[in-house]
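User: Quick sanity check before I run a bigger batch. Here is a single chain. Can you write out its predicted 3D structure?
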Amino acid sequence: MTKIGIISSFHLKIAMCILMVLDHVYRFFPGTPYVFHQFGRIVMPLFAFLIAQGMIHTRSRQSYIIRLLLFGVTTMVGGWILTFFFEGTVFRYHILISFAVAAMIVEAVDHYRADNKPLWLVMAAALAGTALFFEGAWLVTVPMLIFYYLRGKPLLMYTAYAASVFPLVWLMEIVLSFVRGREIFLSSQWLMVFSIIPIMLYNGKRGIGRNAGVFAKYAFYIFYPVHLWILFLISNLMFRR
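Assistant: Done. Predicted structure follows.
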């Protein structure tokens, strides 16, 4: 991958930020073209890929997971505070917690592979069940496991990911139809399969100098909740009667 790759992790994060804003503009502002939402479907698997890379290269997995949880909880709490002032609205964005749960599953499975203690598999299964309660659920967990455990076999990784998308989307639609009492339909979430294109172009590099270490480390985590809070606030101020 690194021989032909032309996109660094920094480039992927910039692309994710742009597409994520488009997607959330669609969600918060009535009348926004649906294509904004469709473009945003590749963001979640790209983030899963980068989290998998982070789990591989981080010096401290515990700190990495705690950071995901911290910003995930911060996003939720900020959203709850905003909904307090705008009664009747709901803030459901906790994808960072979903990625933290997926990272903990990776950690549990790796511990099992190291010491062969079944308790770690039980923990991984429990965490997989917990993932259902957070945004993205298994659409976060399964791709991240594929990206992490097949990282040394790019062709197999690409194939496994592409093959998993439609069954996963259907499975999640079935679960949601049961939980929410709605009819089953294939949403545009299947477009996440196209995230494989920028992933194939990834060159394995950070793409930003070490002098920007703190910025590179925390910028995206800060951007995620802040842009959601701003869009949520503007939307409610503009359209709430």
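The CA atoms of residues 141 and 170 lie 15 Å apart.

User: Great, the batch can go ahead then.
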